[in-house]
Design goal:
Rossmann fold, six-stranded parallel β-sheet, 2 domains, 46% helix, globular, alpha/beta
Length: 379
């Protein structure tokens, strides 16, 4: 039995792919007879949290994006450092498994390098690109951020990437000698859902944070074309986010209030998938796209735009994979094709067979345990 300390910046009550990953990994590790505990900034000692809250407020004084970024990185690093220090003697930890370079380096420092650290790189494109999109940075400031992450990566021994796409994007930040492995996100697979041959109301599902990057607007625009052709359908958006009001306004202006609903955060998402007829994923960028894998896990046919790591989930025949440049009218046409029962049945069979053989939680656990064992051999 191994004692694994999982370190994440995400609240595990969150519905994000990262939080789902760590909930699932903890569950699978414990089912395999290991002890696993997830530490987040919420576990930071109270006195440290109070101090960090005061530091966060200092962003209002500096009023610059670079200062805000600097303070955010400092708060994240320090909170993880003290959260790990708080539990470092709780058990004889064998491995620390961090969410990203920052959390792993903070955890490593907290245990003074005495426990091997593994890092899964959970980010979109690269951590530098994420910050470039979030903050207004000059070229010089962006260079400093790049050097910071090169330094962090240089302190890490072993990395896991959830897709080849993310590894390839990150190469310029990595030291040449770094050890890495690609281990796709895994989920539990269930019996295939029975496809409804003639649904009275064709139900389409899209899951994710409501934000520009997820590109839900494309599906709303496609709905305009579907309605114009007289199709009966319902689109359910599962998730919350900063773009909700803008998307709701778009739905209202398009006269689609009776066809589109925003369900917010929901529980029992797989049950919703089982009752749906088609999953459509429109994201402009994904490191992996766990909600697509979850749709596969119950046999819900999927159409997905081929951005980021999404194509790695699809079979070589690319059944259900859409070109990145697809427009709303073309997407509507692809959805229209899926009204055909035989097309949806074919998608289900091919996608389920391919995904279940490669992206199960059992496979993810097996490969992750190999990484843990490899680290322990080098201690």
């Amino acid at each position: 039995m191994m004692n694994i300390l999982l370190v994440s910046q995400m609240d595990l009550r969150s519905t994000t792919g990262v939080a789902t990953y760590y909930r699932a990994l903890k569950q699978e590790l414990e089912a395999a007879g290991h002890y696993a505990e997830v530490i987040t900034p919420e576990h930071t000692p109270k006195w440290v949290s109070i101090l960090l809250k005061m530091i966060r407020r200092s962003r209002l004084v500096f009023r610059s994006d670079y200062a805000a970024l600097y303070i955010s990185e400092l708060v994240y690093f320090v909170s993880v450092y003290f959260a790990v220090r708080k539990v470092r003697k709780k058990r004889p930890w064998d491995v620390i498994h961090g969410q990203d370079p920052s959390s792993s380096c903070a955890a490593r420092k907290a245990v003074r390098g005495k426990i091997p650290v593994l890092t899964t790189c959970h980010y979109n494109d690269t951590p530098v690109e994420e910050r470039r999109l979030k903050y207004k940075l000059s070229a010089k400031q962006l260079g400093k951020v790049t050097n910071w992450f090169r330094f962090l990566f240089s302190r890490l021994d072993t990395l896991i990437f959830v897709s080849e796409y993310i590894h390839n994007k990150s190469v310029y930040l990595l030291p040449p000698e770094v050890k890495y492995q690609v281990i796709p996100n895994g989920v539990r697979f269930y019996d295939k859902t029975k496809i409804n041959e003639t649904p009275a109301l064709f139900t389409i599902v899209n899951t994710g944070t409501l934000e520009d990057r997820k590109n839900q607007a494309l599906l709303i625009e496609a709905a305009v074309h579907l309605k114009a052709k007289g199709h009966l359908f319902r689109i359910q958006f599962l998730g919350e986010g900063p773009a909700r009001k803008k998307l709701e306004q778009m739905v209202k202006e398009s006269g689609l209030e009776n066809q589109i609903e925003f369900k917010g955060h929901v529980s029992g998402i797989l049950d919703i998938y089982r009752k749906a007829d088609l999953y459509v994923h429109t994201s402009l960028n994904e490191s992996w796209g766990l909600c697509v894998t979850e749709a596969f896990s119950v046999g819900l046919p999927v159409l997905a735009v081929a951005n980021g790591g999404i194509p790695e989930q699809f079979p070589p025949t690319k059944d259900g994979l859409l070109r990145p440049e697809i427009n709303a009218e073309e997407l509507a046409a692809q959805i229209n094709i899926c009204y055909n029962f035989n097309i949806r049945k074919q998608l289900q069979q091919v996608q389920y067979a391919y995904a279940s053989a490669r992206f199960s939680s059992d496979h993810m656990l097996k490969e992750t345990l190999k990484c843990y064992e490899g680290l322990l051999l080098n201690v």
